[in-house]
Amino acid sequence: MKIRIKGNSVRFRLTQSEVKQLSETGSVTEKTVFGTNVFQYKVKLMPSIQNLRASYSNNQITMMVPEQDGRNWSHDATVGFENVMGLPEGNELHLLLEKDFTCLENRNEDQSDNYPKLQH
User: Fold this and answer.
1) What mean pLDDT do residues 74-82 have?
2) Is residue 47 over pLDDT 90?
3) Going by C-beta distance under 8 Å and a sequence separation of 6 or more, which residues neighbour residue 54?
4) pLDDT tens figures, 94-112
5) Which of 8, 56, 84, 89 has the fewest CB atoms below 10 angstroms from its CB?
6) Of residues 53, 3, 70, the one with CA closest to residue 31
């Protein structure tokens, strides 16, 4: 799972096996260790929501996905989900959850579990 944060925008990208795990078990978690501190990011299916939501506490970002969308995601052609979440004082947080596709240019990273790039 990859995460990109820029300003008030958070984007998660999941490989094929992570999308499958999310659909089957209801969550997928990744972590980055900074010495004695651990930063975690998680995608979790939630039955009571209609759009993507996110929270941050205890060094963890959790992106919540409507359960029905997430359960079907590994079996359909949907590339991702997007929502602009309202915050206090008129602020907004842009959320994007996507399947991770192979890059067009050659990269020094393992892309064997990424989705094949889309053909036009």
Assistant:
1) 91
2) yes
3) 10, 61, 62, 63, 64, 85, 93, 95
4) 999 999 866 656 666 666 6
5) 89
6) 3
Neighbouring-strand partners of residue 54:
63
Q: In whole angstroms, what separates CA 57 from the centre of its chain?
A: 17
Q: What share of residues in the chain are helix, strand, coil (percent, to 5)?
A: 20, 50, 35
Do 66 and 50 form a contact (C-beta atoms < 8 A)? yes
DSSP secondary-structure letter at 79? Answer: -
pLDDT for residue 116: 59
Determine the pLDDT at residue 10. Answer: 97
Split into its structural domains, the chain has a count of 1
Q: What is the DSSP-derived secondary structure letter of residue 57?
A: E
120 pLDDT above the threshold of 60: no
CATH number, domain at 38? Answer: 3.30.1360
Give the Cα separation of 49 and 74 in Å (integer): 19
Is residue 44 within 8 A of residue 65, CB to CB? The reply is yes
In a domain, 106, yes or no: no
CA distance 111 to 120: 20
